[in-house]
């Protein structure tokens, strides 16, 4: 892996984890784990697939950054994250990716999520 590519990957990885701090705790945990798993799985892919992988994650980062800023500005409204997935993009997915997307959607929308995380609170003095 050329040094410039590795540096770009690490910077994007860190940026995504930082952006996830704007998410509610349960979605942050889910998102962080998904990012870690996906980056690990794509360590050894070819150049073309790596380029597409990075482009998609950079687009996700841009959308998340915009949504986090909008949510900060509209702090009186309920935070809203996510975007619709166009059918053209779905048609490009492999069967394995469709299954993975289905699992992610089920985990993100179920009432009792797998992750039970509460925000830490400072002890009262």
Shape: globular
- Average of pLDDT: 84
Strand content: under 5%
What Rg do the Cα atoms give? Answer: 16 Å
- Taking pLDDT < 50 over at least 5 consecutive residues as the criterion, the unreliable ranges are 115-125
Instruction: Give me the strand/helix succession.
Output: HHHHH
Structural class category: mainly alpha
Structure characterization notes:
It is a single chain. By secondary structure, the protein is an all-alpha fold. It is built from 5 helices and no strands. It starts with a helix and ends in a 16-residue tail after the last helix.
Furnish the topology, listing elements before pairings.
Elements: H1 3-19, H2 25-41, H3 47-73, H4 87-92, H5 95-109
Helix pairs in contact: 1-3
């Amino acid at each position: 892996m050329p040094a410039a590519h590795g540096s770009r990957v690490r910077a994007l990885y860190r940026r995504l984890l930082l952006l996830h701090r704007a998410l509610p705790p349960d979605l942050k945990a889910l998102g962080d784990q998904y990012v870690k798993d996906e980056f690990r799985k794509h360590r050894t892919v070819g150049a073309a697939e790596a380029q597409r992988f990075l482009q998609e994650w950079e687009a996700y980062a841009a959308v998340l950054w915009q949504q986090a800023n909008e949510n900060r500005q509209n702090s009186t409204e309920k935070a809203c994250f996510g975007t619709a997935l166009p059918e053209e993009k779905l048609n490009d997915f492999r069967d394995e990716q469709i299954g993975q997307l289905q699992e992610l959607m089920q985990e993100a929308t179920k009432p009792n999520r797998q992750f039970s995380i509460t925000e830490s609170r400072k002890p009262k003095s």
